Amino acid sequence: MALTGIQIFKLLPKTNCGECGVPTCLAFAMNLAAGKAELDACPYVSDEAREQLAEASAPPIRPLTVGYGDTATKIGGETVMFRHEKTFFNPPGIAGLIKDTDEGIADKVKNWASFQFERVGLNLRPELVFLVCDSGDAAKFEAAAKEVIDNSDLSVILACEDPEVMAPAAKALKDNNPLLYAATNANADKMSALAGELGCPLAVKGVDIDEVAELSDELTAAGHKDLVLDTGARDIAGVFEDQLALRRAALMQQNRILGFPTIAFANELGDSLGEQVVAAAMLIAKYAGIVVLDDLTAEVVFPLLLERLNIYTDPQRPMTVTEGIYEIGGPEAASPLLITTNFSLTYFIVSGEIESSRVPAWLLIKDTEGLSVMTAWAAGKFSGDDVGMFVKKIGIEDKIDHTSLIIPGYAAAIAGDVEEELPGWNIQVGPREAAHLTKFLKEWSA
Fold first, then answer.
1. Is residue 316 over pLDDT 90?
2. The CATH number of the domain where 11 resides is what?
3. Is the residue at 341 inside a domain?
4. N or C end of the chain: smaller count of CB under 10 Å?
5. Residue 86, pLDDT above cutoff 60
6. Does 398 lie in the same domain as 376?
7. 303 and 330 share a domain?
């Protein structure tokens, strides 16, 4: 059961050193109780207190990581039912299914790994391969697992319910931290031993939630902390109900036995890939930790990645891009120079219109704390003085051979102040609507 702030405070060293980022131990205790701080931020907690606090302050759904490197997928760790209450932290992994009997495994995983899309300064991509032992042959399964790893950076879920067949592939991929799928009533002892030996996360599969709870209880008692739950439901209503039930049990009832992330199979919820995508979209929202599809294509992956991004961002914080100089279309020294705010939607609309114009350009992004042009101007975060100073310090003068700056049409009022801050510059007011940038840039001259 979670401790109150006062209970946590009693276990802290009470030095009020401030090294945790807040001035007093009481303030830190309150933040820890509210989930706004990490225990590791306090350098002076005793080992005994740390053990008590680590358990008490752990999120109701245990976080764990599947895979390695760029595609390591952290799942779980959620603390709320609805993102408007706080936020969702760890987006679900998206996996494509491959059988060890399939032809062209190398080409398929290379293709999947190539699906990478830049959005809001982030690289969006699928992360996982759900590798099924269809052959029943340990050597063939191991070879297929190695083929996935050797030809892509995708992380792997090894799917085989025979521990003897699973073992060689799991040992070969030990350093890649695969998820072992799955422990069942029939194989729990041996699968538990294999996962324990290798230190790999382990999936738990039952025919219903009650069986999953029994297996989870047994495996946690055996020392397994990194579990992923599969309730066995394979119809869309059943999967939906189970995802909700597990989330409620973990968050509202503080049921630690069911407080683990889940894996769900969109590939079994529709005959066509289109139907699977609809099911996957539902599972991303409610509340799968890993979603498996039969295949990954660009038209499947991209909308799911965007949905995932939109859901797993903090609704209380604007989405932003990094302040700096952005080169669009390979600009040269004589190319036009524009400036706008770091609100992600503003950036992507403006940069997209510049790309569409086929006029290479320099785009300056000023940090306005994620506000759009009009809002930032009204809040004093996109004033003429600030814009002028920003242009001076960013170093764009070393990249261009002219002194013309295009400001957004909605910020026309700052033109005079920018000119005062940048003597000798030609401050041009661009169009109010980004859609008109193409015509403006094609007719532009310094």
1. no
2. 1.10.15.40
3. yes
4. N
5. yes
6. yes
7. no
Joined together, the tokens standing for residue 302 give 């991209």
H-helix segments, 100-181 = 105-113, 138-151, 163-172
| Tokens coding 260 | 């683990």
Burial (CB < 10 A; 0-12, 13-18, 19+), residue 291, is buried
The contacts of residue 120 (CB under 8 Å, 6+ apart) are: 309, 319, 320, 321, 344, 348
CATH (domain of 344) = 3.40.50.11600
Q: Is residue 94 part of a domain?
A: yes
Looking at the predicted structure, is the pLDDT value of residue 2 above 70? no
Residue ranges making up the domain that contains 342: 324-442
Residues 6+ apart with CB under 8 A from 47: none
Is 267 strand, coil or helix? Answer: helix
Kindly report the backbone phi and psi dihedral angles of residue 209, in degrees, each rounded to the nearest multiple of 5, phi listed first.
Answer: -65, -40
How many angstroms separate the CA atoms of 417 and 368, rounded?
18
For residue 111, give Cα distances in angstroms to 108, 151, 246: 5, 10, 34
Q: Is 46 in the same domain as 71?
A: no
φ, ψ of residue 63 to 5 degrees: the values are -80, 145
- Lookup result for tokens 């049409």: 409
Residues 298, 244 share a domain: yes
Here the CATH number for the domain that contains residue 213 is 3.20.20.20
Tell me which of 2 and 206 has the higher pLDDT: 206
Give me the count of residues in the chain. 446
Residue 316: inside a domain = no
Kindly report which listed range (47-61, 285-299, 375-389) carries the lowest average pLDDT score. 47-61
Residue among 331, 327, 400 nearest 363 (CA): 327
Q: How far is CA 212 from CA 92, 191, 222, 226, 430, in A?
A: 20, 15, 15, 14, 61
Confidence (pTM): 0.78
- Phi and psi at 426, nearest 5°, equal -100, 105
Tell which residue, 290, 262, 296, 261, has the closest CA to residue 276: 296
